[in-house]
Records
---
Amino acid sequence: MAALKRAGGVLAGLAIVAAAAACGGSTTPASEQSADAQPVSGGVLKVALNAWEPTKLDPQSQGNSNDPLIFRPIFDTLFWQTEDGELEGLLAESADISDDGLTYTFHLRDGVTFHDGAEWTAEGLKLNFEHALDPATQAVLAGSYLAPYQSSEVIDDLTLEVTLSEPYSAFLSVLAQGYLGIISPQQLAEAPETVAENPIGSGPFRFVSWTKGEKIVYERYDDYDWAPESGATHTGPAYLDGLEINFIAEDSVRYNALVAGDVDLIDWTPPQNAQSVRDSENLEFVKFDRPGHPYALWLNESNPPLDDVLVRKGVFAALDREAIVETVSFGEWEVADGFLVPSTPAYVENTNAEFAYDVDQANEFLDEAGWTERDAEGYRVRDGRRLSLYFPTLGDVTQANQIVELAQSQLKAVGVEVVIEVLSDDQQQQIVADGGHHLSAGIWTTNTADVLFIKYHSSEITTPERRGTNQTFTADAELDQLISQGRSTTDTEERAGLYAQAQERLTEIVPSIPLYYRPSLVSYHDYVHDIAFDRAYGNLWFYNTWKDATG
Amino acid sequence: MTQARGRTVRPYLRRIGARALAGVGVLFGAATLGFLALYVLPGDPVYAIAGNPDQVSLSAEQVAAIRETYGFDQPLYQQYLEYLGQLVRGDLGTSYQRQQPVTTLIADQLGPTVQLAAAAFATTLVLAFAVSLLTAKRRFGRGVSSVVELFFISAPGFWVGIVLLTVFSFRLGWLPAIGSGGWQTLVLPALTIAVGAAPPLIQVLRNGLEDTLDEPFVLTARTRGLSEAAVRLRHALRHALIPLTTLTGFLVGGLLGGAVIAETLFSRQGVGRVLVTAVTANDVPLVLGLVLLAALAYVVVNFLVDVVYPLIDPRLRSEVTA
């Protein structure tokens, strides 16, 4: 009872960042359908994802798109992102930011108990920061999100003062993402290496077992009493008795396993099956955009001829992005209209006419760049060299392969050759890191416009010492300055202005070709109710979810 | 008789000993070739450790720590010697991606694959014996069977699996589509592997049977009034077993390849699925461990085949003495 009162006593957790976020583009989950039904406890929800299974169950060590969905049940984060893009307290109640943006004072929630009985204290938060930054953790993503972290000091049991090496406006927002799940302080103090196989957190579900190559099993954590207020439909423990997350590599098997009732819900619905799910009497369908940078073709500016902005613009104008996205997604994905997904704070609509598909315009750009001659095969030639672009790829995702091939044929129409080579992960990554490629493709999901720093700041270019994130090798002084300022400015209005200018600058230098938002495509049986999403990453979240008696 | 046996046993043992030594040589060769092949491939192993997440960023400290932990800063020959030293102690190293000992990872995943392989092997043999015994020297049965066999040899295993899944799992709902608990989950994956593996065996066994059925002693047996079934089972089959035994050695390799497909398609845990992810991620220690496992399986099976030959075929025993 005491626990219940405490939960009720927490006033709408403090909104710390007033990020003016437009949430257009994403579909609201179809939870209204169950408005008249009364939620019931019980049942195990069987979920199926694609083959992207974590390599370790330490959330801070991972960097794949499925991970926030997989870790969110077990781990809470410090903050929760609300529908309008603000942050609300979860394991932290609030945070004070010093005027210089260098000191963050975290006030933690009282009364949180981890699955192993450990108490939640400031010391525990300190251990978590240090774990993510310990090279032994190999935190491929969380480590970089915390890079400006310098030190922290325990003020009292529930207060931690963190000092950053530089002002970092995205700090609190990234702490809401599933990759920064808070691990049991007791486990981190006693045996941090065991997190990989036996993760212990404070979330609504506890870890039960992991059959590698097959599934992860969870059970309800009965003492859970600190659900994020704005996201949750109820308080106390979750409705479901447990969760089972299966990894089904084959698209058709995943879809048919849903139809046949082997699983209750699938993410990564094959786009070609989305319509039949909608038409089905007993299946439901919902899609949800992930914030951050759209899925894009990255143009390597360091490798001629892409060092010439005219060539980059020519390539951009030659691609019929509508047709590409329509074809590979069977109409399920929207074409990206800028360098940020609309649900990302500070997104501005792109109105640059040069971004339209226009073959004549593309030919003009390429002519202007001096690629005027043609060889026997119809490709453009300048100074005896063919206008040819090298695209090393992994070939592991059907849609990505289709995009590459469609782009290849469309570029051929304006006399640009694309040479595709399918390689293993580390070979491809090595080439991209060395800048030996012209084209690569990818997405970066995160809940702040700081993604522009991650993808386009010159300091993020890979060096022999470190692995950076700037795959386009963009090194533009004007852009650098705008996104550096955006990163260090604590004022929300000012920051939004800076990011608007940065997006404008990107349309001038064209370092990439944004294609689509890659939403989660979720299909489920109609006996499953109250599907919800964690907006910090755009992943499914099962705290509200329940199954009715027909399941 | 006793004297003859005494004369044959010692060379037989010597031969077995030589085979065992050769097996060790094969394992050493596999380890060395595998090591060289994987290390000579382009690609910085630091990226293999980071895997293929969508989003990667490694600081200078993280990169340096990885290089040091795995000894990438040492010259190749030193890494090789260290690797061999580890091997001798039964240590296969630590997986790049999972940061677990390779021996543990393989041991955890071996059980389900062995179950699957055993089920597939048994199904293959049953199919091979049944079909070849029923169709040998029977014009119509042989004709139909040959067409079916040819079809399944050329049909990709993946497609066969999808068809089986669609019919027995998604349409009829008789068997589960995913997972690895209980015998029900073994049926379709084992069948997927077996229908691809059985046809060559059927053909070899049937040819063997047909050759034997032309032998004079079969005629003698028939004139003694033996039934057709008895002739086939008691006389012809034993003779036809020899080429089949040889093929069995190859079959084991096919089973591992089949496991890769079946485990992926039916979402089963097992070394096949581990192999796929390890290869695409270039997780060198794990791939090497699996290469050695495959080599070991080959060596053991071929060793057993060599041991069994003279027991099936007494002619081989006298050849050994000669």
---
Amino acid sequence: MTQSVTQTKQTNSSPPALRLRGITKRFPGVVANDNVDLTVDAGEVLALLGENGAGKSTLISILYGLYQPDEGTVELRGQPVRVTSPAQALKLGIGLVPQHPLLVARHTVAENLALGGGSGLFPARGVAGRVRELSGKYGLEVNPQARVSDLSPGEKQRVEIVRALMRGAQVLILDEPTSVLTPQEADALFRVMRELKADGRSLIFISHKLDEVLAVADRVTVLRRGKVVGGRDTAGATREDLAEMMVGRSVDFTRKRLAAARPETPLLTVRNLTALGARGLPALRGVSFELRQGEVLGVAGIAGNGQSELVEVLAGLHASGGEVTLAGQPLTGNADERFRGGVAHIPEDRIHSGTVPTMTVAENLALRDYARAPLARGLARDLAATDARARQDVEAYAVATPGIHTPSRLLSGGNIQKLILARELNGSPKLILAVHPTYGLDIGATDQVHRVLLERTEGGAGVLLVSEDLDELLSLSDRIGVMVGGELRGPFPVAEVTRESLGMMMGGAHPTVIPGADQGVIA
Amino acid sequence: MDNVFVEALVRALAVGTPLLLASLGAILNERGGVVNLGVEGMMAVGALAAFAVAVAPGGNLWLAVLAAAAAGALLAALHALATVTLRANQFVSGLALALLGTGAAGLLGKRYEGAPLFNKVPDWNLGGFVISPFTVFALLLAGALAFYLNSTRSGLTLRSVGENPAAADVLGVNVGRVRTLAVLAGGALAGVAGAFLALSYRASWADNMTAGLGWIAVALVIFVGWRPLRAILGALFFGVLYYLQFRLQGNSPIPTEVFSAMPFVLVLVVLALAGLRGQQGDAPAGLGRAYMRGER
């Protein structure tokens, strides 16, 4: 890292690889970017930090030609350029590795790489050589013959990187690249990033994860409410420093869960649970575990290993075999009966499964019990009671919305999540099923969701927390299990696992080194 | 025995020809992401255009086929305008054009009703095997289309647009242009399928001459999983069904209407079977959805 800092200083005389001057972009009612200046040198990794809504996405969209700035200029190696489309950005040598891969799933890697280029006949054949060359040079393992739908998130990301490099990208933007990766895959990505940097390319790295920023970036630029509020070299910086710049106040990173000795009363008992997945293949192969009162049980795993099915089975949305009891009673019935029996569900897809986007905030808040007293009298809904409770919920959970009759699709992700929490926790549930509850939320909203969940455990509720964010799992859970191929490894007391050991298990390694598995010891 | 078999095959190929031509056209635009339910209408206007040019003084058969393609493409241009440019619902637009096409052809074709065509497109006799040039063209086209889709840059672009238009868009592909051209080509082929009916198979003009063949072609596309070479087999399959229908019709106590309804009943059966086998999964991922930049 010291080496690159000196490099930066040596090249100060020549113009930077990329410079943004005074970029301003206004949308009706908001200034998304306000006079933003930013530079990246050749052979440098710049981290772009900021909370949701700080203007990072807008800035990237401008760089990648999706938006035109209202004011300001983009300069490449000292030359002002106009980026009018993503294709134009690629021509200018600006590549983007998007957060969600933009690939044709049914096609092969080679076909995806040949799209928009390649030879007239047999376009996919010509690219294999280039792929091998780039793979070897930067350690990017990619099989050109593989079908994209068969690839892991990390592999898809490598295809995106190879594609950008094939188009001659000198400036590479990585938009939250690690959000879908295991820790091991993330480390592999960082090695690739360092290779690209050593080769003189410029990288813009966007991440919420401050540890990663410190590990891989040379410099950070921090955006808050559309403005650059600071920047510094990462050498000598701490997580707390960066978080404070980003949020504007100091942030506490200590473990949120103060694990105390808890009553060991079992709440949820799951025995030999089996279920079929979407394609009729086994998704759960005999899952057994116990969740205690007041416990947060974390479930780690790479998407598609049965976590979704596990939660759907418990919520009453998916047929299954096996035995489940909640507080001593067999847990059966449909989703509505289970909700009334004390099962709350914070679903994975908060927009489409958690809400009806075109319905109002008040209607969404009433989805669980609009048909019952006190929200209904006989066959008629009591709209006044519905609205009154909606106002209470909006206030209690600090849902930022123009009004309770605003369609929920107009709310930000964090506020939609608060709305769902308010609705699901209304009935004082015994069991809370929370899937990726803070995915994509900024530090402030994440913190609020975490506090609400932990508060409920104080009252004896149990939380089954499914997350791909290992830091979240480690900071909230009492015990953590890992879903691999439809089986649950563990759960292990949180004191006995680390990011690395979880990452290994997620990748399929057996937990041979971990003692005390499922012994029920809570640290 | 041999003769019966050859006759069955010749007849099946003949009925299969318009099905194959129209479904190849539909495969082309559906692989690009646009559903075209208007095939029946485009076939009808193609048939009328072909017949009108062929019976005109000095009627040139090549010109007649060309007119049919142009008429089909013209109707398809409305579909492209509605669904690609204006992003209207593809299913509703297609249905409207099916009605418009058959209705317009029936109305404009009134004066040709009952008129015979003296210069019908001559069949080829390949060693006792009588076959229409249209059939040969359709068979060759299936192979060419398969090669085009799988092995050319342009075909790859088309397939990518049908699967994930956003991915193609960021790489500089003009999604709207690709889709529009595919819809026009699909409409032109439906028109040529109509020309076959007017110039060769029936060699006359009658109202509702397409008789639901366009609808069967639409279903055939799903049945064959959007694959051109399989469409040959699918068209033959339905061709054989039509042949059996004709054969059984004459000497059977069952009313003819039952036989006439048979192909459509079988379409339902075949599609249900395809659904059970999970074949809808072969549909291009972006099929039926308008593309707008910025929506991810």
